[in-house]
Amino acid sequence: MKIAYVTTQLPTPEFGYGQRTLSLLDSLSEVGDVDVIWMKHREASPAEIEHSSRIKLSHCPITRLPIAKRLPTVLAGTPPVWAHSIENCELLKGEYDLIWFSRLQTWILAGKPKGAHIAIDFDDLSDELYRTKRVLQRVALKQIPGWCYNYLNEILIRYNRKLAAKVVHGVFVCSDRDAVTVASDNCHVIPNGTNLNVQQTDQRYARHVVFVGPMRYPPNFDAASRIQKIAEALKESEHRGEFRLFGEGTQNFVDETSSVKGFGFVDLTSSIYDQAAVALIPLRAGAGTRLKVLEAMAFGVPIVATPFAVAGLKVINGETALLAEDNEALLTATERLLNDVDLRISLATRARAHVETVGSWQQARESAKSYVATLRGIR
Fold this sequence. Notes:
The protein is α/β, with parallel strands linked by helices. It has 14 helices and 15 strands.
């Protein structure tokens, strides 16, 4: 079986999306001959070059259109955020048994091809991402253009998502919850996972509270703001650890007087969870599956989170995490864990066993291979 995997981002294991891509490429390589077609919009990073050396890679350059030239594409149904021109699209016209688009965006850039040999990974439902950006955005007068831009992207991405589900053979999401949102007979769940081969944190010596996520994503920014308030409320307690934020932009999120420390992007994931007593994840919005939840479980770090943050992961309150909705309840749960090492150990142990059941990339690989098996004989 000859397969084309079309992506706008080369895979690296440092990020959840890169881990998902590598997992899918591994599974597709087991059932066919895979060509990776990169819709190139920048030069590859050293990490991308390193991890792309083992795949057959072709370039299909794309260029972001200037604002003056975006209107015709938007009127044709393209979200303005994805208004690009594409070169060398002939690569996609090869005799492939399956063309797998890594995201809805790549399918749109390729001209929205139809057919029984087309599959699209919806990943984290981009229209839901823009909806959450809009919902969390404060609508002051100067923010109205940004609010309208996000709303236009949300509408057009949702339109294209529904169109794609009608005209291609298969679409994929990462949770049962997202499958309900898509509501299509050709929608399949390929769950996200995390690296389980990691050193677990020794909770006997753990003392810090951590949160991971880039600040450019509004739900993460909102969560970090809540953490800042919780940290201020715990300032006078006997807790001697730190509230730590990791991810792009976190180093600029806080100032010297804050009770929270921002460390920016960290290459080595294990250093994030070193001495972490609690992974505090107070998300109120977002889409897809929160990989930060699976990651914390894998490292043996007990979780305090909102029910929204763990949606679709079959988490049980009091068994595999402590769940709370408002800041006061989140603070109480966090303080409880910080002061009870036995509770931390038991919660972390059960969460680790749980993630081994629901959060293995092997499940994603098996789901992808099972889908490809249904395509035998289509062409």
